[in-house]
Amino acid sequence: RPVVGKVKTVSVKREGKRWYVILTAEQTQPEPLLATGSVLGIDMGIAHFLADSNGEFVSNPRHGRKASAKLEAAQRALARFPRVRRDKRTANHQRAVQRVADLHRRVRRQRLDHAHKTACDLVRQHDFIAHEDL
Length: 134
Fold this sequence. Notes:
alpha+beta; flat
């Protein structure tokens, strides 16, 4: 996608076999959000993703549990390969490793996406947000 603003730094990152380019760009000051006059306190939880001071809960989507069946199958397939020296690993073993890594990466991205969307909604709806000291 096109880069908005002047690029200040460029970083290259590798995760497994995937490479990413991270650009930091200088932009003009964005327009502030309209004042809502709303104050909110949030408490992060385990049973629920978060609970707020209005008595509402944001449910925890449990992406890991939803992907557990596929992940178990992929890890069982990986466990079938005998432990051998690093230079003797087969292409099938490498594919099995990549499959497990892809499933873990997908769950991680889903969790980050849910957290980002929830935080973005809260910031747009409230002027002041207080949270517990984690």
